[in-house]
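Dear colleagues,

As part of the handover before I leave the project, I'm documenting each prediction I ran so the next person doesn't have to rerun anything. This entry is a single chain, and its sequence is reproduced below.
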Amino acid sequence: MAEGETQSPGPKKCGPYISSVTSRSVNLMIRGVVLFFIGVFLALVLNLLQIQRNVTLFPPDVIASIFSSAWWVPPCCGTASAVIGLLYPCIDRHLGEPHKFKREWSSVMRCVAVFVGINHASAKVDFDNNIQLSLTLAALSIGLWWTFDRSRSGFGLGIGIAFLATLVTQLLVYNGVYQYTSPDFLYVRSWLPCIFFAGGITMGNIGRQLAMSSHGTPRSSGNVCSTKL
């Protein structure tokens, strides 16, 4: 190499802010943490409604002081919420069907409010029998999906979540971890899958919105990171 020649510098790296924001692992972790705490909060509030109306009964020795809920309920619901919220946008991406129906935070907040209302109705509204209550909650849950989701992947994941969550709940009640008053669907209430379905749709909408918000962050461009020769 000639003495007068200088080695051409390599590509200049962007600043640490851009590299950290665009890091997929960091983005995934942040969304997971947010979804976890949202799930914990909703679990504390909604489980309080069920306990106050004696819909669910926990043994006295496992009741914690926070919102009179068993200690393991909030972290389990938070973990499930994080998995569901991260799974929905991942499935959308793999199917090549990005969900764009009502993608704004105001719609997500209304979806959360409707879900809380459905759960509140399961504990507060008195029907002649559980069949009427189950049919009403099923109609409300499907209405929630139609109003705020309308995707085939969302409906399919909601059904799968409702099935798995109901199965796990059946096993917990069977092993005496807690119990439901007046069970009419093996060991649980027949309307429980409707609550799980609505909860899956709700957390999926939150996860999709978080994913869309994170993808909207500024990314590096050739003009920003390029250097003058």
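The two ends are 20 Å apart (CA to CA). Residues 1-6, 10-21, 61-67, 217-229 have pLDDT under 50 and may be disordered.

All the best with the project,
I.
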